[in-house]
Specification:
This is DNA processing protein. The protein is α/β, with parallel strands linked by helices. The chain has two domains: about 5-85, no CATH class; about 110-335, 3-Layer(aba) Sandwich (Rossmann fold). The protein is built from 13 helices and nine strands.
Length: about 325
């Protein structure tokens, strides 16, 4: 299993009460000495202060856990902010939502900022021709050497992963669970196939969830990573938050929220968004309620249909490249 001394320091710091993503992002850039980390911790933690010896004892304990619990069968390694191969997120995000520690299985370089990463997400139970249309879009992205990102859920997520593999492309699954306990369980075979064919499984979690509430929170955190690790996020289809009110037949049903949350995060982070939608055939379909809503609220949302998907894929990739070139140029002028 691959890990650095820096990653162990970040993992140990996160153990202390009151130390979360925001604190890490504000105080640590990576590769600080233990002395400095302990000094910074003691400026923050309440109650009894820590010591260098105590920090090192905790660090040794976490290293033993990594070695004993996370063998190569489940996990290839961990990366933390400051590590050479820790992926740079996209978009503008507040400190509390910045990732700083990841467990992975597969090719972690697929998350690199320079890669063409496209998230393709949607609802759990697509019907009609939604699957065929989504597959055509994914196939076109892969044809243009893009890597497909999704969340390994049933329905549209699984379709995007599987089509990427069927097209001999690479795909990344972002999980709400530890790598030793793939969720959903029925997609373990798909997860294995993703890694075997050069893809990546990645998660922020090393331990199993303790309650349904904690799992729900983890799904939300997973949804944010689907936005942060892509250049553009594409919504195949999804119910909206008010779909049950708009369509009485849906009342009492549990409607998907993951895609809605991911698209919301993308908006907050200024990640480009696209939706699959054809007004001639999707106008009365509740499975496209969120797609319609996004189109109405944001003129910048790219609309992909069966006739224009090839040109829209090119447009999306060209815009992503332009944005990266401009960002790299701006950053270069600061030094």
């Amino acid at each position: 299993m691959k890990y650095t001394d820096n990653a162990l320091n970040i993992l140990t710091a996160k153990f202390y009460k009151g130390i979360g993503n925001a604190w890490i992002a504000k105080n640590l850039k990576g590769n600080e000495s233990v002395d400095k980390i302990v000094y910074l911790l003691n400026k923050t933690i309440k109650g009894d202060s820590t010591s260098i010896n105590e920090f090192k004892r905790l660090k040794d304990r976490f290293e033993k856990i990594l070695i004993e619990k996370f063998d190569n069968e489940f996990c290839d390694g961990v990366v933390a902010i400051g590590d050479e191969d820790f992926p740079k997120h996209r978009g503008k995000v507040k400190d509390s939502e910045k990732p700083n520690f990841l467990y992975y299985k597969g090719d972690i370089s697929l998350l690199n900022f320079d890669n063409k990463n496209i998230s393709v997400i949607g609802l759990l139970n697509p019907e009609g021709d939604i699957e065929e249309r989504e597959r055509n879009i994914v196939k076109q992205f892969v044809k243009k050497n893009a890597t497909i990102v999704s969340g390994l859920a049933f329905g549209c997520d699984s379709i995007s992963h599987q089509q990427a593999l069927d097209s001999n492309g690479k795909t990344i699954a972002i999980l709400p669970s530890p790598l030793s306990n793939i969720l959903p369980t029925k997609n373990k075979k798909l997860a294995s196939q993703i890694v075997e064919e050069g893809g990546l499984l990645v998660t922020e979690y090393g331990n199993n969830f303790k309650s349904k509430m904690e799992l729900s929170s983890r799904y939300k955190e997973r949804d944010r990573l689907q936005a942060l690790f892509c250049d553009t996020i594409v919504l195949a289809a999804s119910y909206a938050q008010n779909s049950a009110d708009l369509h009485p037949t849906l009342r009492g049903q549990k409607l998907d929220s993951g895609a809605r949350l991911a698209m919301g995060f993308a908006k907050d982070y200024y990640i480009p968004r696209a939706v699959m939608y054809d007004e001639h055939i999707d106008l009365d379909n509740p499975m496209f309620d969120l797609n319609r809503s996004l189109i109405k609220e944001d003129n910048n949302v790219i609309i992909i249909n069966q006739e224009n998907f090839c040109t829209k894929v090119d447009e999306i990739l060209d815009r992503n490249l332009k944005n990266k070139v401009e960002k790299n140029f701006y950053q270069a002028t600061l030094f």
